[in-house]
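just leaving the lab so this will be short. below you get a single protein, a line of residues and a line of whole numbers that encode the local backbone shape. id like you to explain what the token line says about the fold, in plain words if possible. thanks a lot i owe you, the record is right below:

…
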Amino acid sequence: MKTTALVGFGDADSFYASAETVRRPFLVGLPVGVLGNQGACVIARNYPMKKYGVKVGEPIWEAKQKCPQGVYIKRDFRWYETLSRKMLAEVGRYSHRVEYYSIDEFFWEGSANRGQSYEQTAVDVRDHVKRATGLPMTVAFARTRTLAKLAADMAKPFGAVALTCPDQETDLLRRTPVTEIAGIAKRSAAKLEPHGIKTCLDLRQASGLLVRRLLTVVGHDIWRELNGVRAVPIRPSRSPHKMLARGGSLAGRVRDAHTLYGWLVRNIERLIEELQFHEVRASTLTVAVSYFDAESAAGVAHLSVPSDRFDILLDAAKRGLRTAWRQGKTATHMHLIASGLRRGPWQQSLFEPPDPKLDAVARVKRAVNERYGRWKLRSGATLYANDWYDDPANEHEVCDIRGKFCF
């Protein structure tokens, strides 16, 4: 197996918790949990806290029972983005083609350092990132993205590995369940199991036609990657979005229609930010709501002309929410999804005539918020969800970190 050009992969260990340790060195060695949802649950924890059995998504009161001596800190995505981009810059010293995959994961076109093996280069990258950022990172090299990520997952924490011969690949895949592959969860694994496919090696040795039939083209690409074929190239920059979305948890359980409407307006304003940043307008708006005591529901509204205007999108969102709302039920999450994105110019229609007054208000609102901070000017309807704005940690979300491919 040739090793002249491998894929590099770096994944920060317990990134959010490690980021808190960088600016609070006294936390080194202590069990640390990072909280989200207004401090209600654990969204990340370091390895010392994992030893106590604390899980991601666990309510804070249950986490404290398992780990009463733990240090629990509110999330700060502005700080995490600062360190994330610092890691991106440092990895960029080793390659001109780096993919900003997620806030703490990076793929790159890998070459061994001059005079070093790939194993030595992995150690060099890992140690350099630690010196430059203070963050522990696991680094792996392999023939494809999927193989590199699997190798890194098995080498955590603070590992440095390279799969440079067939025996190394085979050994790794033999002892790794298929569910360890990103993109293959329990439902996909259940489809594979009747065919005797339980490990990654089983999947690699299976028929490609069978895999495609069971897991569609996505699963077939994973199969190709396990067999050393690069199905997905390194992407130094994102391709244009096919859709944009904003939303998430409602910070509790919402039954009141006015509060739910306040969240709807909040998410519209966040979505408009993204539409304007990417210079696109939406043709279709979907409002999806998840419930604690009912099935999820969604409503779709088609716009007569692509728009990023508040009044037009609000009207469409109201229509979508009427379909998605389950009266008397308890909502927990809401997402607004803009699709059918269009770039200008296009002809205005009778359905969206120019409105100088609304355009002037939008310009003032945007200018004030750019100068003094997000949400200094916002719709009065968002007062129904005012608790969210009282917490400065909510001013910057992980989805506000632009340029990466996923969370």
Remarks:
- The longest strand covers residues 243-254.
- The first helix runs from residue 15 to 23.
- Residues 130 and 154 are 19 Å apart (CA to CA).
- Residues 80-226 form a domain with the Alpha-Beta Plaits fold (CATH 3.30.70.270).
